[in-house]
Amino acid sequence: KAGVTQTPRYLIKTRGQQVTLSCSPISGHRSVSWYQQTPGQGLQFLFEYFSETQRNKGNFPGRFSGRQFSNSRSEMNVSTLELGDSALYLCASRSDRAVQMNTEAFFGQGTRLTVV
Amino acid sequence: ILNVEQSPQSLHVQEGDSTNFTCSFPSSNFYALHWYRWETAKSPEALFVMTLNGDEKKKGRISATLNTKEGYSYLYIKGSQPEDSATYLCACRYGGATNKLIFGTGTLLAVQP
User: Fold this and answer.
1) Which of A15, A73, A88, B108 has a CA positioned 20 to 30 A from the CA of residue A97?
2) Omega into A61 within 30° of 0, i.e. cis?
């Protein structure tokens, strides 16, 4: 079974640009979550999608948005990039048996975004 | 704001030493606690998911305990090996509107051969 795949792995963008990151979950998983990690910070929750609907959202500005497609693949978009958006962005998928509280999340390897 | 805390921030041990780290979390509305191991340049890998007070889980030389009443979990590694070197992350899931994994900042373990 293929794991969670994130593309691209590395990205360099300029301030003010926008960026789209992609995440393909494990086959059969309908829940996809996105996290941001910056140096010295734990993984910060961005949002979670389940069956194409955003179920939960973290405390990030509106420049951060996402969506999920009918095949459960998800994209995350950041508009008007700022230097502080430089981070590792991780996506995780979970079993599609409802949104059970104790199912483990499987992570991708992340996209390293550098804003210059 | 729910805050999951891990200690210590980092740990350097010799091969063969046993070690343990702590995860502290608010116990109100708690649902589940996850431990992950995150090696450099890889994906975080799930170790354990625990939900009940008194839960104990074991995988090889690694074990974990959970106390939901006082809000802490311990992760133990017996006879550390260099391949155990990684960041160990703790994450909690709560009920209600906060149905998301809240991560601690992790404990970085370095095992010297």
Assistant:
1) A88
2) no
